[in-house]
Amino acid sequence: DAGITQSPRHKVTETGTPVTLRCHQTENHRYMYWYRQDPGHGLRLIHYSYGVKDTDKGEVSDGYSVSRSKTEDFLLTLESATSSQTSVYFCAIRDGSSGNTIYFGEGSWLTVV
Amino acid sequence: QKEVEQNSGPLSVPEGAIASLNCTYSDRGSQSFFWYRQYSGKSPELIMSIYSNGDKEDGRFTAQLNKASQYVSLLIRDSQPSDSATYLCAVMTGGFKTIFGAGTRLFVKA
Fold it and tell me: Is B35 helix (H, G, I), strand (E, B) or coil?
Protein backbone atom coordinates (compact mmCIF):
# COMPACT_ATOMS: atom_id res chain seq x y z
CA ASP A 1 0.00 0.00 0.00
CA ALA A 2 1.67 3.20 -1.19
CA GLY A 3 -0.67 5.42 0.82
CA ILE A 4 -2.35 7.05 -2.18
CA THR A 5 -5.97 8.15 -2.10
CA GLN A 6 -7.92 9.70 -4.94
CA SER A 7 -11.11 11.69 -4.74
CA PRO A 8 -13.72 11.60 -5.99
CA ARG A 9 -13.70 7.96 -7.03
CA HIS A 10 -16.66 8.40 -9.35
CA LYS A 11 -18.06 11.55 -10.89
CA VAL A 12 -20.54 12.46 -13.61
CA THR A 13 -20.31 16.02 -14.88
CA GLU A 14 -21.67 18.09 -17.73
CA THR A 15 -19.78 19.30 -20.77
CA GLY A 16 -18.18 22.67 -20.22
CA THR A 17 -17.93 22.49 -16.45
CA PRO A 18 -14.60 22.54 -14.61
CA VAL A 19 -13.65 19.43 -12.68
CA THR A 20 -10.89 18.88 -10.14
CA LEU A 21 -9.55 15.48 -9.14
CA ARG A 22 -7.46 15.20 -5.99
CA CYS A 23 -4.59 12.87 -5.22
CA HIS A 24 -3.28 12.62 -1.68
CA GLN A 25 -0.21 10.68 -0.56
CA THR A 26 1.03 10.04 2.95
CA GLU A 27 4.65 8.97 2.36
CA ASN A 28 6.34 12.18 1.26
CA HIS A 29 7.22 11.03 -2.27
CA ARG A 30 8.72 13.73 -4.45
CA TYR A 31 7.36 12.56 -7.80
CA MET A 32 3.64 12.33 -8.51
CA TYR A 33 1.85 11.59 -11.77
CA TRP A 34 -1.57 11.76 -13.40
CA TYR A 35 -2.44 9.20 -16.06
CA ARG A 36 -5.61 8.52 -17.98
CA GLN A 37 -6.56 5.08 -19.25
CA ASP A 38 -8.75 4.44 -22.25
CA PRO A 39 -9.48 1.26 -24.22
CA GLY A 40 -6.90 0.74 -26.93
CA HIS A 41 -4.59 3.43 -25.60
CA GLY A 42 -3.45 2.06 -22.30
CA LEU A 43 -2.13 4.46 -19.70
CA ARG A 44 -1.14 7.87 -21.00
CA LEU A 45 0.72 10.45 -18.96
CA ILE A 46 -1.11 13.76 -18.55
CA HIS A 47 1.13 15.75 -16.19
CA TYR A 48 3.65 15.00 -13.53
CA SER A 49 5.28 16.81 -10.63
CA TYR A 50 8.82 16.59 -9.27
CA GLY A 51 8.27 18.78 -6.25
CA VAL A 52 6.11 21.49 -4.74
CA LYS A 53 5.16 23.94 -7.49
CA ASP A 54 7.30 21.96 -10.00
CA THR A 55 5.24 20.34 -12.74
CA ASP A 56 5.67 19.31 -16.37
CA LYS A 57 3.53 18.12 -19.24
CA GLY A 58 3.10 14.55 -20.37
CA GLU A 59 1.80 13.02 -23.61
CA VAL A 60 -1.80 14.26 -23.42
CA SER A 61 -1.79 17.52 -21.45
CA ASP A 62 -4.13 19.64 -23.60
CA GLY A 63 -7.26 20.61 -21.67
CA TYR A 64 -5.71 19.75 -18.30
CA SER A 65 -3.86 21.72 -15.66
CA VAL A 66 -2.27 20.63 -12.41
CA SER A 67 -1.16 22.17 -9.16
CA ARG A 68 1.00 21.01 -6.28
CA SER A 69 1.05 23.43 -3.38
CA LYS A 70 1.95 20.76 -0.80
CA THR A 71 4.08 17.63 -1.11
CA GLU A 72 1.15 15.40 -0.25
CA ASP A 73 -1.43 16.78 -2.69
CA PHE A 74 -1.49 16.81 -6.50
CA LEU A 75 -4.58 18.24 -8.15
CA LEU A 76 -5.72 17.64 -11.72
CA THR A 77 -8.16 20.16 -13.21
CA LEU A 78 -10.17 19.77 -16.38
CA GLU A 79 -10.68 23.39 -17.25
CA SER A 80 -13.82 22.85 -19.36
CA ALA A 81 -14.76 19.19 -19.48
CA THR A 82 -15.47 17.56 -22.84
CA SER A 83 -16.86 14.14 -23.68
CA SER A 84 -13.41 13.08 -24.91
CA GLN A 85 -12.18 13.44 -21.34
CA THR A 86 -14.48 10.66 -20.15
CA SER A 87 -11.93 8.24 -18.81
CA VAL A 88 -10.41 6.55 -15.79
CA TYR A 89 -7.80 8.75 -14.14
CA PHE A 90 -5.00 7.24 -12.08
CA CYS A 91 -2.71 9.11 -9.76
CA ALA A 92 0.68 7.57 -9.09
CA ILE A 93 3.86 8.13 -7.12
CA ARG A 94 7.44 7.17 -7.86
CA ASP A 95 9.18 5.34 -5.06
CA GLY A 96 12.87 6.10 -5.43
CA SER A 97 13.71 3.66 -2.65
CA SER A 98 12.30 0.72 -4.64
CA GLY A 99 14.01 1.15 -7.98
CA ASN A 100 11.85 4.00 -9.27
CA THR A 101 8.73 1.86 -9.22
CA ILE A 102 5.45 3.60 -9.97
CA TYR A 103 2.59 2.83 -7.56
CA PHE A 104 -0.98 3.73 -8.37
CA GLY A 105 -4.00 4.99 -6.54
CA GLU A 106 -7.35 3.26 -6.97
CA GLY A 107 -8.50 5.46 -9.85
CA SER A 108 -11.19 8.05 -10.48
CA TRP A 109 -13.94 7.22 -12.97
CA LEU A 110 -15.06 10.40 -14.74
CA THR A 111 -18.00 10.60 -17.12
CA VAL A 112 -18.66 13.81 -19.06
CA VAL A 113 -22.19 14.00 -20.47
CA GLN B 1 5.99 5.12 -33.60
CA LYS B 2 4.70 4.62 -30.07
CA GLU B 3 7.34 4.69 -27.39
CA VAL B 4 6.31 1.36 -25.85
CA GLU B 5 4.59 -1.27 -27.97
CA GLN B 6 2.81 -4.46 -27.00
CA ASN B 7 0.51 -6.85 -28.82
CA SER B 8 -2.99 -6.13 -27.58
CA GLY B 9 -3.96 -9.79 -27.71
CA PRO B 10 -5.94 -11.45 -26.45
CA LEU B 11 -3.43 -14.16 -25.72
CA SER B 12 -5.11 -17.39 -24.73
CA VAL B 13 -3.23 -20.26 -23.08
CA PRO B 14 -4.39 -23.44 -21.31
CA GLU B 15 -3.96 -23.82 -17.59
CA GLY B 16 -0.47 -25.04 -16.73
CA ALA B 17 1.12 -23.69 -19.92
CA ILE B 18 3.73 -20.95 -20.29
CA ALA B 19 2.42 -17.52 -21.28
CA SER B 20 4.88 -15.29 -23.12
CA LEU B 21 4.30 -11.53 -23.25
CA ASN B 22 6.46 -9.20 -25.29
CA CYS B 23 7.23 -5.50 -25.40
CA THR B 24 9.49 -3.23 -27.46
CA TYR B 25 10.53 0.32 -26.66
CA SER B 26 12.00 3.17 -28.66
CA ASP B 27 14.18 5.16 -26.22
CA ARG B 28 17.65 3.57 -26.23
CA GLY B 29 18.59 5.51 -23.09
CA SER B 30 15.92 3.85 -20.95
CA GLN B 31 17.29 2.11 -17.88
CA SER B 32 14.30 0.89 -15.86
CA PHE B 33 11.67 -1.56 -17.05
CA PHE B 34 8.56 -2.86 -15.35
CA TRP B 35 5.72 -5.32 -15.78
CA TYR B 36 2.35 -4.58 -14.21
CA ARG B 37 -0.80 -6.69 -13.99
CA GLN B 38 -4.22 -5.08 -14.08
CA TYR B 39 -7.50 -6.80 -13.33
CA SER B 40 -10.67 -5.33 -14.79
CA GLY B 41 -11.83 -2.30 -12.80
CA LYS B 42 -8.68 -2.22 -10.68
CA SER B 43 -5.46 -0.23 -10.70
CA PRO B 44 -2.23 -1.69 -12.11
CA GLU B 45 -0.03 -3.56 -9.66
CA LEU B 46 3.68 -4.23 -10.04
CA ILE B 47 4.76 -7.77 -10.89
CA MET B 48 8.44 -7.28 -11.61
CA SER B 49 11.09 -4.73 -12.40
CA ILE B 50 14.30 -5.33 -14.37
CA TYR B 51 17.26 -3.04 -14.94
CA SER B 52 20.06 -5.07 -16.57
CA ASN B 53 20.30 -7.37 -19.55
CA GLY B 54 19.36 -10.98 -18.99
CA ASP B 55 16.74 -12.83 -17.00
CA LYS B 56 15.22 -12.11 -13.61
CA GLU B 57 13.07 -14.74 -11.93
CA ASP B 58 10.47 -14.32 -9.18
CA GLY B 59 8.37 -17.39 -8.49
CA ARG B 60 6.42 -18.31 -11.61
CA PHE B 61 7.42 -15.07 -13.36
CA THR B 62 10.57 -14.42 -15.40
CA ALA B 63 11.37 -11.04 -16.93
CA GLN B 64 13.87 -10.85 -19.78
CA LEU B 65 15.63 -7.71 -21.00
CA ASN B 66 17.66 -7.18 -24.16
CA LYS B 67 18.72 -3.54 -24.41
CA ALA B 68 20.50 -4.00 -27.74
CA SER B 69 17.23 -5.17 -29.31
CA GLN B 70 15.14 -2.80 -27.14
CA TYR B 71 13.02 -5.73 -26.06
CA VAL B 72 11.46 -6.80 -22.77
CA SER B 73 9.46 -9.93 -22.14
CA LEU B 74 7.57 -11.62 -19.34
CA LEU B 75 7.15 -15.37 -19.04
CA ILE B 76 4.49 -16.83 -16.75
CA ARG B 77 5.07 -20.50 -15.99
CA ASP B 78 2.31 -22.88 -14.87
CA SER B 79 -0.33 -20.31 -15.85
CA GLN B 80 -3.42 -20.25 -13.66
CA PRO B 81 -6.92 -18.89 -14.37
CA SER B 82 -6.19 -16.23 -11.74
CA ASP B 83 -3.44 -14.94 -14.04
CA SER B 84 -6.11 -13.81 -16.51
CA ALA B 85 -5.64 -10.04 -16.65
CA THR B 86 -4.12 -7.28 -18.74
CA TYR B 87 -0.33 -7.07 -18.55
CA LEU B 88 1.29 -3.67 -18.97
CA CYS B 89 4.88 -3.09 -19.96
CA ALA B 90 6.37 0.16 -18.65
CA VAL B 91 9.62 1.95 -19.38
CA MET B 92 11.17 4.80 -17.42
CA THR B 93 12.61 7.38 -19.78
CA GLY B 94 14.68 10.47 -19.07
CA GLY B 95 13.23 12.93 -16.58
CA PHE B 96 11.65 10.12 -14.54
CA LYS B 97 8.66 9.81 -16.85
CA THR B 98 7.30 6.28 -17.00
CA ILE B 99 5.63 5.38 -20.29
CA PHE B 100 3.26 2.43 -20.56
CA GLY B 101 2.33 0.17 -23.42
CA ALA B 102 -1.33 -0.37 -24.24
CA GLY B 103 -1.28 -3.77 -22.56
CA THR B 104 -1.77 -7.39 -23.55
CA ARG B 105 -4.91 -9.21 -22.43
CA LEU B 106 -4.18 -12.73 -21.21
CA PHE B 107 -6.79 -15.47 -20.82
CA VAL B 108 -5.87 -18.69 -19.06
CA LYS B 109 -8.37 -21.44 -19.82
CA ALA B 110 -9.12 -23.97 -17.08
Answer: strand
